[in-house]
Write a structure and sequence with these properties.
Layout: E1 3-4, H1 12-29, E2 44-46, E3 59-62, E4 65-69, E5 73-81, E6 98-107, E7 112-117, E8 123-129, E9 135-142, H2 153-167, E10 175-179, H3 183-191, E11 195-197, E12 214-216, H4 219-227, H5 237-261, H6 265-273, E13 277-279, H7 283-289, E14 297-302, E15 307-310, E16 316-319, H8 322-332, E17 334-336
Parallel strand pairs: 1-13, 5-10, 7-14
Antiparallel strand pairs: 2-3, 3-4, 4-17, 5-6, 6-7, 8-9, 10-13, 11-12, 15-16
């Protein structure tokens, strides 16, 4: 089920220009596991239609103004789900929850990358499946649950991409890369570990992981740092997300240095994670182009302002205001006409 494969021939038109940065950022992020629109919303989406002319960029209207998608912009969704990559899927609701979601917006015109870290508890509409795999409509739930639906990793990823598109109106997910829990130790080993200062106590898992200690994480410690939640600190996902972003930032520095110093390291990276990731991009193109990634201006990991509250079922729910969602979309993906 793993490996790098193109979704369809149409993606070949997009892959070459942004695959390198996307996959490098996948590897930065891989070690970290990691109801927006009301019916009376002012937002109106208008996708490209024949009357707009062949090849014309899509546009949207918001608050009386028109915006056009930036030329050279493509997206890739990184998905980290809470199952081993080779775990058997039983039924149509066993794809695992996507505890880690980062949307990359790659702009080939100005060689920049925006990274949006989406809270796994974000409430949005998710398409659901019945026990026998039949379409069961949709309902508002945590966005992480979208990945559970479907009997193959391809469908799990597709459901997650659809949920993200629903959460971010006017944004299309062009490609996805997903990875299971086993990526964490593999990735950490590949880059030789990451040094972090622990803000929380992890001694329930490892006696060396005391609050305040600066530690070069071994592979198992990296797993605890990026994945643990219930027995760590305040037990909240927001704290885990903060640790994930810290890991990404530190790992990215090491990764860029390794790529710049060793021309063969790109192939080593891709080959090391090929069997435990599922990617809609070409492996050959990744290896050939990945070394150019260091020329891009990669922005810090961003998050949207949000409010958290426990729902009726006792689970945490994350709510983001529509104006904050649209402000990010119109800045990262669109430009005013």
């Amino acid at each position: 089920m793993g490996g790098f494969a193109l979704k369809s021939d149409q993606h070949k038109l997009h892959v070459r220009s942004f695959v390198i940065t996307a996959v490098v950022l996948l590897l930065f992020a891989a070690g970290c596991y990691i109801a927006m629109r009301s019916e009376d919303s002012q937002y109106q989406e208008r996708r490209s239609v024949a009357s707009e002319g062949f090849g014309q960029l899509p546009s949207i209207e918001y608050n009386g103004a028109r915006y056009r998608k930036k030329a050279g912009v493509h997206t890739l969704l990184l998905i980290g789900y809470d199952k081993e990559s080779d775990a058997e899927r039983i039924g149509y609701r066993d794809g695992g929850q996507s505890d880690f979601l980062v949307l990359l917006v790659i702009n080939d015109t100005d060689n920049t990358v925006r990274q949006l870290h989406i809270d796994r508890d974000t409430m949005t509409r998710v398409k659901t499946l019945g026990l026998a795999g039949q379409e069961a409509g949709g309902r508002v739930m945590q966005i992480c649950l979208a990945h559970a639906y479907g009997k193959t990793i391809e469908i799990n990823d597709q459901r997650t991409a659809e949920a993200v598109e629903g959460f971010l109106p006017g944004v299309t997910v062009d490609n996805t890369i997903s990875m299971g829990l086993d990526i964490i130790s593999n990735f950490n080993h590949l880059i030789g570990g990451v040094t972090v200062t622990l803000e929380e106590d992890f001694t329930n898992f490892d006696p060396e992981m005391k609050a305040g200690v600066t530690l070069h994480l071994n592979d198992q410690q990296a797993y605890y740092y990026c994945r643990s939640r219930m027995l760590t600190g305040d037990g909240l996902n927001t704290s885990r997300m903060r640790r994930q972003r810290t890991y990404i930032e530190e790992a990215s520095k090491q990764m860029l240095a390794r790529i710049q110093a060793d021309g063969s390291f790109a192939a080593t990276m891709v080959n090391s994670v090929e069997k435990i990731t599922h990617c809609t991009l070409s492996k050959a193109q990744v290896i050939n182009e990945i070394n150019r990634a260091a020329t891009f201006d990669i922005g810090h990991v961003e998050i949207l302002p949000s409010e958290h509250a426990y729902g009726r079922g006792g689970y945490m729910e994350c709510y983001v205001k529509e104006e904050d969602v649209m402000a990010w979309i119109l800045d990262a993906v669109y430009e005013k006409v």
